[in-house]
Specification:
mainly alpha, globular, single chain, 9 helices, 209 residues, 0% strand
Length: 209
């Protein structure tokens, strides 16, 4: 199995699993956590939250492209593989924000814990969830930076959630846009262990399309 096939399998499986609650909502059943995702006009988040979300997108995307050049080098590719990345970005951006921001942070709040604790736990849980499979395979070269960077991302998303009045809209926006730009290339880099495009593989893939 090629690195692309492995990446597609991971992203496809994760997307199918995460899509299940959205599918339930789409067919007409109500799941409280998925109600009012923050895009209704009457409950839109304050401008500051949206501005910070846009800044976070810019900073994190540039950081990722600098840390893993493959993400930048593959930006012009149009393929079914990229389409899978976009699908995963949209589904994951919604479901993960509902879980890591609304569910985790609101549950901690109901326990009487401080805002700082809510932010830190949400961020760390976000980082570990995105890197646990790398730890399982003992790929510490990728796992440690991935945990740190995604934990920081999760912390800033948690702060935006609070500044937006616990409104998910700006968080979902930032999460989806980041993922659309960097996936599936970030996952491919983690699976293959490569930070740059393999030129021989690139020529082979270009010939296949």
């Amino acid at each position: 199995m090629t690195d692309r096939s492995k990446t597609a399998l991971i992203l496809g499986t994760a997307t199918l699993i995460m899509f299940s609650p959205l599918a339930i909502v789409l067919v007409g059943y109500s799941i409280p956590m998925f109600q009012n995702l923050g895009f209704e006009r009457e409950s839109i988040a304050p401008p500051l939250a949206w501005i910070l979300a846009a800044i976070l997108v810019t900073v994190y995307v540039f950081y990722t492209m600098k840390a893993i050049p493959l993400v930048l080098e593959k930006q012009n590719e149009i393929s079914l593989f990229k389409l899978l990345g976009i699908l995963s970005a949209v589904v994951g951006g919604i479901v993960e924000e509902v879980f890591f921001r609304r569910w985790i942070m609101d549950m901690i709040m109901s326990g009487g814990f401080a805002l700082t604790f809510q932010v830190i736990i949400s961020g760390i849980a976000f980082g570990l969830a995105h890197s646990s499979w790398l730890l399982a395979k003992r790929d510490f070269k990728f796992a440690i930076p991935a945990i740190l960077s995604t934990s920081v991302l999760g912390i800033f998303l948690a702060i935006i959630y609070l500044l937006g009045g616990r409104n998910l809209g700006p968080c979902i926006f930032a999460h989806v846009v980041i993922n659309i730009i960097i996936e599936p290339w970030l996952m491919l880099s983690a699976v293959s262990g490569k930070r740059h495009v393999d030129l021989r593989l690139q020529r082979h893939n270009d010939g296949d399309r």
